[in-house]
């Protein structure tokens, strides 16, 4: 299937393969902040099991950001294993934005499957795709393990150049003030506003 909305009337007893690629904008709920995700590929199998529906598969793509050490643009590739169970719900009013009622969301084992619900004879995989992307978002972005970061004095990217500031500081001529001014030039939107 090339869509994340699956009609149960068209779902074979043996299940159906899902394989589609979507941009972040097609997945992000209204009002949610952007994650900077490149196109996400969703692959797996949705199958009926004992009155419920099980999706097993994986999400692949990359988070686009900047390195937390050197501020260089980078992409952090991901592969997230997906294991979701969809159930019939008596009332859609009980469901929150992720497709779970509050009680079941609180009781769900974090290591167990994520829960979704059947609505109007269809299963929409998109809310759980988005939830996995949010939960999988890295706490830090590092372009490489040995990233040297920025010089605290002049702001130079130490992965690309040896600025010599450390030698100057070691000889007794601190240049920290210059470094802060250089960083302020690089990020003018972050300058504090002074009231007149």
Number of strands: 7
Major β-sheet annotation: 5 strands, mixed
Number of helices: 4
Mean pLDDT, all residues: 79
Which structural category fits the helices and strands? alpha+beta
Low-confidence stretches: 91-109, 170-176
Helix content: 10-25%
Please list the strands of the largest sheet in the order they lie side by side: 2-3-4-5-6
Number of domains: 2
Order of helices and strands: EEEEEHEEHHH
The general outline is: elongated
Strand content: 25-35%
> From the alpha-carbon coordinates, what is the Rg to the nearest angstrom?
24 Å
Notable characteristics:
alpha+beta; 2 domains; 30% strand; two-stranded antiparallel sheet
């Amino acid at each position: 299937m090339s869509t994340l909305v699956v009609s149960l009337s068209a779902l074979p007893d043996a299940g159906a393969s899902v394989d589609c690629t979507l941009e972040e904008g097609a997945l992000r709920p209204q009002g949610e902040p952007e994650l900077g995700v490149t196109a996400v590929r969703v692959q797996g199998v949705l199958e009926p099991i004992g009155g419920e529906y099980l999706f097993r598969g994986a999400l692949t793509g990359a988070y686009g950001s900047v390195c937390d050490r050197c501020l260089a643009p980078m992409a952090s590739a991901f592969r997230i294993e997906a294991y979701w169970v969809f159930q019939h719900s008596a009332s859609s009013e009980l469901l929150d934005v992720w497709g779970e009622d509050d009680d079941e969301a609180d009781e769900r084992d974090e290591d167990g499957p994520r829960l979704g619900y059947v609505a109007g004879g269809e299963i929409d995989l998109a809310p759980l795709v988005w939830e996995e992307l949010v939960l999988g978002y890295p706490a830090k972005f590092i372009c490489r393990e040995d990233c040297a970061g920025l010089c605290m004095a002049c702001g130079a990217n130490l992965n690309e150049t040896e600025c010599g500031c450390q030698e100057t500081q070691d000889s007794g001529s601190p240049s920290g003030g210059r470094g802060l001014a250089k960083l302020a030039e690089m990020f003018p939107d972050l300058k504090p506003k002074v009231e007149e």
